[in-house]
Amino acid sequence: MTAPSPTAPSTVARLAAQAARLEDATAAATTQLTAALPGLDAEAATAALVVAVPIPVRGTARYLEELAGHLATHPQALTSGSSLCPPVLLRLAQVLHEGGHPVFRPGCAHCGTVRTDLRQLRPEGRLCATCDAKSRRATCARCHREGVQITARRPEGGICSACYQKDPARREECAECGELQNPVVRRDDGRGLCKSCWKRPTHTCVTCGRTAVAALIDADGALCHLCYNRHRRPRRPCGRCGQLKRIARNARDGEPDLCDGCYRGGPEVTCSACGRIRPCSSKLQGQPVCGNCYRRNRQGEPCARCGRTKPVNTRWPIGPVCMTCYNTVLRSPAECSRCGTVQPLIARDADGTGVCGPCVGFAADYTCRQCGRAGNPHSRGRCAFCVLAERVNLLLAGAHGVVPEQLQPLATALAAVPAPFQAIQWIRESPNSKLLARLVTEDRPLSHELLDELPPSRNQRYIRQLLVHTSVLETRNEDLERIPGWLEHELADKPAAHANLARPFLHWFLLRRARQRAAVRRYPASADRDLRRRVSVALELLAWLDQQQLALADLTQEHVDGWVTDGASQRRYLVRYFLNWTASRRLTRKLTVPSIPQQEPQVMLDEDDRWSLLQRCLTDDALPLDV
C-alpha cells in the first residue's frame, strides 16, 4: 500500500488549518496577556508564550486557547496568586517573573510552595505531589483506622504512619550502636543509622556566621533556623487575626493560614470547662479546655523556694518551683559556692548555700549561646539582653536597615537598661515605641520641629523627653516651646481671620513676656496651662463675635460685660489679656474687664462659737492631735 504524499490536498489543508488555529490562538493569548499586564508589549508577550508553550510541541494551539480563555474570564489571574488555573499559566508566570514583570506566581493551595508542576487540581486549587499524597486518605490495612493517611504499601494493603513506624520489616541493625532500629539515613557503605546516632550536618550561616543546623540552603548559602525565621520565613495575612505575620501553619482541610500566635492557641472549639468557643490547646480529663480554664484548674504543689502552694512551672534539684520563683532565680544569677561561676543557683548545699545546676549534675544550661552571659534566658538559647539589642536595632533601623548616627545614643541607652524583659515588652506593646518607629521610618532627622508637627499627646511628650534625656535632642524650656505646636493644631479648623489674630497674640505678646520672665527667674510649672487658657478664651470671644455678626472693631463695653457674665466659669475673665493687646494695636477701643467677684463664706462663725472651739482644743483630750 502506497503512503499518501505529504503534499496531498488533504494533508496540505490540515496543516494550513493547524497553522491558522495556532496563529489565532497565539494572537488571542497575546491580546489577553497584554491587557492583563499593561507594561508588556505584544513582542515580549509572544516571546514569553514561546518559552512557556514551545511552538513545535504538538497541540500547542489547544494550550494557548485554554490560556486565552482563562485570562478572558479571570483578568487578574497573573496577579491574584490563585492556583485555580491551567498548567500553562504556571509556566508563563515563572517566565514573566524571571523577566522582572509584576506577576504573582501561584503556589500549592495547601502548603503554598511555588512550583510549575502542580499537576493535581482540586476545588481549592492545584496541589503539589506531597500535599496530594497527604490528602489521600483510606482505611489502614493493619490497625483498620478509617480516614488515615496512607504512608506505605504492603501485601495486605496500605498502612498508616503509625503502623509503618512499627513495621518489623523496616528495622535493621544500626551501624553505630548495633541496635535494631528504624534507619533515618544511610552511610556511603549502605548501612543505616538510627535516629539517636544520626547527627544532622551543620553549616555556617551566611547571615549571623554561626555554625548550626541549616533551615534553608539556597544559592546565597545556608541559613540557620533563627535567621530563617527572622528574614526568610514567609509573611502572609493570618486567616484568624487578619494581621500580616509569619505563618506557622499553612491553610489545609478548610482551615486558613495561621500565624504563630493563633496557631499556638489551638483550634477554636467549645471549652469543656467554661462552655465558650475559644482556642483550646490543652485537655482536661480528655476534654478540650481553653488556656484560662487550664491555668485555673491546674493542681498546685508547695514551692520549694517560697513555700506557697502554686502550679509547678519546673522541677529543679531544690524541688518544684512556681513561676514567680522560676523567673526570680533565672533573672538574678549569683556566684556558685562550689565552682565560683556566676550562674542561676537552682540547687542547695547541705548548709543551704546556693549551687548551680552543673555542680549537682543537672543538665539544664541557662547560658546565652550568643554572648555567653548566664541567666535571663529569653528565647532560642539567647538571653534577654541579646534579644533586647536585636529588638532595639529593628526599632531604630532606618530605610537602609542601619541605625542612624543621630540615634546611636538612644540605641545604646535602650540596650543597656537593667530590666531587659520590661524593655522588650515596651518595644512590643507600648504606643510610645510605635510612635518612635513611625518617626524613624519617615527617614527624616529627628528634631523638636518634627515632633511639633504631631498632635499634642502623652506619647508625643514621652518621646520628646526620651530623646532629650538621651542627648539626641537639645534641652529647651518645654513648658513654653511646645505651646506654638499646640496652637497650630487648635487653629486647624478655625477661620483664617481668627488664626491671624491668635498667632501674633501668642508669639509677640504672651510668649515674649513669658520668655523674658523665665530668663531672670524660675517659671511656674503651670505657666503653659495659663497661656493656653488665655489663647482659648480669645478664640472663644472671636467665635462669639462671628455668631453675633459683630466685627472686632465694633466691640463695646456692654458686649464685653455681657459675654463675661454669661459664662459658666470664671475663665472668661482671662480675656482681659487679649483685649489689652488688641487695644494696644488699635484693633479695638480701650475696654475694661471687671475683676473676678470675691467669694464670701456661706457660714460665718460669731465670736462666742470661735472662743468655744478654741477652749475645746485646749481642754478636750479626745480630739486627735492633728486637729
Question: Which tags fit this structure?
Answer:
24 helices; 3-stranded antiparallel β-sheet; alpha+beta; about 625 residues; extended; about 40% helix
Question: What layout of secondary structure does this protein have?
Answer:
Layout: H1 9-36, H2 42-52, H3 60-73, H4 77-80, H5 87-98, E1 120-122, E2 125-127, H6 129-135, E3 137-138, E4 148-149, E5 152-154, E6 157-159, H7 161-165, E7 172-173, E8 180-181, E9 185-186, E10 192-193, E11 202-204, E12 211-218, E13 221-224, H8 225-232, E14 235-237, E15 244-249, E16 258-259, H9 260-264, E17 268-270, E18 277-279, E19 282-284, E20 287-289, H10 291-296, E21 300-302, E22 309-311, E23 314-316, E24 319-321, H11 323-330, E25 334-335, E26 342-343, E27 347-348, E28 354-355, E29 377-379, E30 382-383, H12 384-396, H13 408-415, H14 420-429, H15 431-441, H16 448-452, H17 458-469, H18 478-481, H19 483-490, H20 496-520, H21 527-547, H22 557-565, H23 575-584, H24 607-619
Antiparallel strand pairs: 1-2, 3-4, 5-6, 7-8, 9-10, 11-12, 12-13, 14-15, 15-16, 17-18, 19-20, 21-22, 23-24, 25-26, 27-28, 29-30
Helix pairs in contact: 1-2, 1-3, 2-5, 12-14, 14-15, 15-17, 20-21, 21-23
* Strand residue percentage: 5-15%
Strand segment count: 30
Shape: extended
| Rg measurement, Å | 39 Å
Give the class from helix and strand content and strand pairing: alpha+beta
Uncertain runs: none
Question: Biggest β-sheet: count, sense, barrel?
Answer: 3 strands, antiparallel
Strand order across the biggest sheet? Answer: 11-12-13
Q: Cα distance, first to last residue?
A: 134 Å
Helix count from the secondary structure assignment? 24
Give the helix proportion (percent range). 40-55%
Average pLDDT confidence is 84
